[in-house]
């Protein structure tokens, strides 16, 4: 039976570290870190995630500066909100909650965020920094996966990894991070022929396909490590992209949904914010094992 990779527990441990990091530097910086989560519209799942982020901020001592714009907001109005946060000296991190309502293009809005306040690591400059192996904020979900793998002692060098999904939010940065850790990485997507033939070669399988329960035992090599990034609300509750009950008996380790990658996404957002707070104040941080 596989080891369950408990993201809630690791997230809780990292939160304790963040609390201490903030408390020890508060006098030197002169104000607490500030994170703005910008939500546009009323996507119900986004409401849950934004609430989780704000609660997590409160637990560690980060001030939430978020704004909620209505679904009919124009690109100009969202841009104005981003620019106001860029100029706000009490704001260290900005995140534009995705997805945006239909009709709003996320591309130019993400580009408008000050790259040094880009708590989500999705600005083109920061994606370029990841590509080149330079320091900078990293996308939270793949960074959370890397922290979960490290916690469970999963060696990556020389391993064969398959990432299912090629989104800018998860799949692409995940592949780059695994390559930087010396894994040999393949990226599968909706046009990949005979998906199972590829995924069965993986020592590490990361599934970020956005399709409920699409990966089953036929896709997994016995003994593989399986990370489920998916999260879906169904009539029978939350589920991931992986059929957990089928895969758990054959994997060596697996992340559950809920309680796996989701809480790590939130925690890495806090980490990026605290690191930006320290950098902006010219104060050293102690989170170097979590960020490049
Ligand atoms: N700007 C961004 N938008 C979105 C991101 C992102 O990283 N940046 N990722 C996803 C959603 N997401 C973060 O915003 C997210 C997903 C899941 C969780 C989480 O805590 N999941 C819990 C279950 C929570 C529940 O639904 O009850 C778990 O898996 O245990 C937090 C954040 C899309 N948008």
TrEMBL record:
GO terms for biological process: L-histidine biosynthetic process; methionine biosynthetic process; purine nucleotide biosynthetic process; tetrahydrofolate interconversion. It catalyses: (6R)-5,10-methylene-5,6,7,8-tetrahydrofolate + NADP(+) = (6R)-5,10-methenyltetrahydrofolate + NADPH; (6R)-5,10-methenyltetrahydrofolate + H2O = (6R)-10-formyltetrahydrofolate + H(+). Keywords: Amino-acid biosynthesis, Histidine biosynthesis, Hydrolase, Methionine biosynthesis, Multifunctional enzyme, NADP, One-carbon metabolism, Oxidoreductase, Purine biosynthesis. NADP(+) binds at residues 165-167, 231. SUPFAM superfamilies: Aminoacid dehydrogenase-like, N-terminal domain, NAD(P)-binding Rossmann-fold domains. Residues 5-120 form the Tetrahydrofolate dehydrogenase/cyclohydrolase catalytic domain. Its EC number is 1.5.1.5, 3.5.4.9. GO terms for molecular function: methenyltetrahydrofolate cyclohydrolase activity; methylenetetrahydrofolate dehydrogenase (NADP+) activity. InterPro entries: Aminoacid_DH-like_N_sf, NAD(P)-bd_dom_sf, THF_DH/CycHdrlase, THF_DH/CycHdrlase_cat_dom, THF_DH/CycHdrlase_CS, THF_DH/CycHdrlase_NAD-bd_dom. Residues 139-279 form the Tetrahydrofolate dehydrogenase/cyclohydrolase NAD(P)-binding domain. NCBIfam families: PRK14186.1 (NF010783). Catalyzes the oxidation of 5,10-methylenetetrahydrofolate to 5,10-methenyltetrahydrofolate and then the hydrolysis of 5,10-methenyltetrahydrofolate to 10-formyltetrahydrofolate. Belongs to the tetrahydrofolate dehydrogenase/cyclohydrolase family. This is Bifunctional protein FolD. It comes from Cyanobium usitatum str. Tous.
């Amino acid at each position: 039976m596989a080891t369950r990779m408990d993201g809630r527990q690791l997230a809780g441990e990292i939160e304790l570290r963040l609390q201490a990091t903030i408390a020890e530097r508060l006098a030197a910086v002169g104000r607490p870190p500030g994170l703005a989560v910008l939500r546009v519209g009323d996507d119900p799942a986004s409401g849950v995630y934004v609430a989780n982020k704000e609660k997590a901020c409160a637990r560690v001592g980060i001030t939430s500066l978020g704004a909620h714009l209505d679904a009919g907001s124009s690109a100009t109005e969202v841009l104005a909100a981003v620019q106001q946060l860029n100029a706000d000296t009490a704001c260290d991190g900005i995140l534009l909650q995705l997805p945006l309502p239909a009709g709003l293009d996320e591309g130019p809005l993400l580009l408008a965020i000050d790259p040094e306040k880009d708590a989500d690591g999705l600005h083109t400059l920061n994606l370029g920094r990841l590509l080149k192996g330079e320091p900078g904020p990293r996308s939270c979900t793949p960074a959370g996966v890397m922290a979960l793998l490290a916690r469970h002692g999963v060696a990556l060098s020389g391993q064969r990894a398959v990432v299912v999904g090629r989104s800018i939010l998860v799949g692409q940065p995940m592949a780059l991070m695994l390559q930087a850790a010396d894994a040999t990485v393949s990226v599968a997507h909706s046009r990949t022929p005979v998906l199972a033939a590829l995924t069965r070669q993986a020592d590490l399988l990361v599934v970020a396909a956005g399709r409920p329960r699409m990966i089953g035992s036929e896709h997994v090599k016995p003994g593989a490590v399986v990370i489920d990034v998916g999260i879906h609300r169904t009539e029978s509750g939350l589920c991931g992209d992986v059929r957990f009950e089928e895969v758990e008996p054959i994997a060596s380790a697996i992340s559950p949904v809920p309680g796996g990658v989701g809480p790590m996404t939130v925690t890495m957002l806090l980490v990026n914010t605290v690191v930006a707070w320290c950098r902006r104040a010219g104060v050293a941080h102690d989170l170097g094992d979590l960020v490049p």
